[in-house]
Design a protein that fits this description.
By secondary structure, this protein is an all-alpha fold. It is built from six helices and no strands.
Amino acid sequence: MRHTYREQLEGILGDLVTMTQKVAVAVRVGTKALLEADLHRAELVISQDEEIDEMRTDLESRAFQLLARQSPVAGELRMLVASLRMVTELERMGDLAAHVAKIARLRYPECAVPDPMRGNFTRMAEVAEKMVVSAGRVLADRDVAAAQDVQDRDEEMDDLRRSQFRSLLSDDWTHGVEAAVDVALLGRYYERIADHADSMARRVVYIVTGEFPEDETWPEP
């Protein structure tokens, strides 16, 4: 019986890693849809967001069943509680990737990102995707040291976001209000993806050590 219980716990974590991989793909494909004004890719990301939502529902149900039936304590309780929070983080990241795709769809056949901002968004998307992938690896390997890499990338994301604001507020901005709103929203979406990935990595530290990092701050929903 206990062996089966441990298998169920590991199954939840394994599916969380799979969910992380799906989110990373959604971020990558959504970015291609955005930067290449690709309607097909945009629709693909939007439609697959429902699959990520269904995974969240399934994982939450399984975690709650184990909480109710097994009365876990110590490390097992930490694992289940953190899993419930991480599945929410992943679902939100999927939603944010879908938001990127929806802006790409809204502006089609034009590109929502002005040419001078393409480099910034390309790098922002690369950082966001790498953070999601790294968070999944941290979870799969229970690697506390690797969580620091996710945090370092989050700092780069903040720098990229500040660069966006400087461009938007510059007298050189000639692309109009609509493009400025799109850039501000898109930048926020990528920044939030990074924040959720960082939060995931911190939760793995909690699972392994029983303590949150000292500078722990949780992203808003």
